[in-house]
Design brief:
- The structure is a single chain.
- This protein has helices at residues 5-27, 30-51, 57-75, 77-82, 85-95, 108-115, 122-134, 138-145, 149-166, 178-198, 208-224, 228-241, 267-281, 288-301, 310-324, 327-339, 343-351, 361-373, 377-390, 394-407.
- The protein is an all-alpha fold and 408 residues long.
- Mean pLDDT is 84; it is low at 96-101 and 199-206.
- It contains 20 helices and no strands.
Length: 408
């Protein structure tokens, strides 16, 4: 079976995270593992269109990556001195296996906890996990942190060096040590799902592979550690995920929440997630993820857009802002304020965020919408232009262009 570039890209996205985690577990060297996987992906892009896509693409990639790792170790005196001959022998034994029969070990949970070690800075923990576990580029991660690609590359390099030099163990912590890393792990899973929802670069609106990975990780963590914020995050992700089928039309065009066909939502998943949320809130230990899940639940359970409980959503955003101080939360609070009926006050709040969110595409999109509602067409056009220029997603860009045209 021959595969086109779209099929190859999809398989690479699906398999790379698990393969890279397995390589890091064996090599204990993030850079070497990433380089070996990159070599294997290049080889797959060359060989698969000619020979057909193997039935076990992940195992094929892992097998080739191990061979490339051996080649790199032989060429590098520094790396050879750092890794024992026993490790190299183990790699030889692994690549002698039949890759079609091999099961790729799932090391992703250990990887996420390794990346979230307390020795690393908070931002470094999240960024490194997004890079290694999900294969996001430095540019994609930089967008989530509102920083530059070069700054993010430096941050990633320092984090990998810290893990190597400090000899940080590649393990899931014991129960007593879990809470110390929990905040970072939750942030990572949340950002994985956010990236799946925005699909920063490319023609498609979303990345279903990342969405499923975030759901899977949140579910594992929920079973591993019954913490209220873990439950809140699982409920939040599932509530968002339940609406996935209605987010775009058959042509891949984005459909805003206001205009989605709510019959297409997965109401069984909404009911399940809402149940998790309600039992969690009853514990009386509210946190940011629980508050966000409560906001999402109000959207998910409203019969239609006009019956959405905007005053309650506004109050929840105010609580969330008091907890986090996040400018993005302040932006969402302003949108809720506008939807509650005070568009003029909302635009003044949004304008006050113009410096800190200058490069944040949703800021300009929200501002354009509010200006259009107030009848300020020229300013709205300019804001739409900024939002369109900052968007790297074709479906999102087409949506904004259509909104701008509709306003004229």
């Amino acid at each position: 079976m021959s595969g086109d570039s779209t099929t190859l890209a999809r398989i690479f996205r699906q398999e790379s995270g698990q393969v890279l985690a397995a390589l890091i577990a064996q090599l204990r060297d993030f850079d070497l593992a990433e380089d070996a996987l990159a070599d294997a992906l290049v080889e797959a892009a060359r060989a698969w269109p000619e020979r057909g896509i193997p039935s076990n693409g992940g195992a094929w990639l892992l097998s080739v990556a191990r061979r490339r790792a051996i080649d790199r170790l032989r060429r590098s005196k520094t790396r050879s001195s750092d890794l024992t001959e026993q490790t190299i022998r183990l790699l030889h034994e692994d690549v002698s296996m039949n890759e079609q029969d091999e099961i790729v070990p799932d090391e992703r949970l250990r990887l996420i906890f390794t990346c979230c070690h307390p020795a690393l800075s908070e931002d470094a923990r999240v960024a490194l996990t997004l890079r290694t576990l999900c294969g996001l580029t430095a540019r994609e991660i930089a967008r989530a942190f509102l920083t530059s690609e070069s700054t993010m590359n430096q941050r990633l390099s320092r984090a990998k060096a810290k893990i190597r030099d400090a000899g940080i163990a590649y393990v899931v912590p014991e129960a007593d040590d879990l809470p110390a890393r929990l905040h970072s792990v939750l942030a990572v899973i949340y950002l994985i799902y956010n990236e799946s929802y925005s699909a920063y670069e490319g023609q498609t609106l979303s990345r279903h592979d990342l969405a499923l990975e975030a759901v899977r990780l949140a579910d594992i963590l929920y079973k591993l550690l019954p913490d209220p914020e873990v439950s809140g995050l699982l409920a939040l992700i599932r509530l968002h995920h339940a609406r996935r089928a209605a987010r775009e039309d058959v042509n891949g065009v984005l459909i805003s929440l206001e205009h989605q066909d709510r019959r297409m939502w997965d109401h069984a998943e909404i009911t399940q997630a809402t149940g998790i949320l309600l039992s969690t809130l009853a514990q009386g230990q509210p946190g940011p993820y629980q508050i966000q899940a409560a906001i999402s639940a109000l959207h998910a359970t409203a019969k239609n857009w006009s019956e959405t409980d905007w005053p309650q959503i506004l109050a929840l955003y105010q609580t969330l802002y008091e907890m986090t101080g996040s400018p993005i939360v302040a932006l969402n609070r302003a949108v809720a304020l506008a939807n509650s009926g005070d568009v003029a006050k909302a635009i003044s709040v949004v304008d006050a965020l113009s410096d800190v969110l200058a490069t944040y595409q949703p800021f300009h999109a929200a501002r354009a919408d509010l200006l259009a509602r107030l009848g300020h067409r020229e300013e709205a056009n300019t804001a739409y232009d900024h939002a369109i220029a900052l968007s790297r997603n074709d479906a999102e860009k087409a949506f904004l262009i259509a909104r701008r045209a509709k306003m004229s």
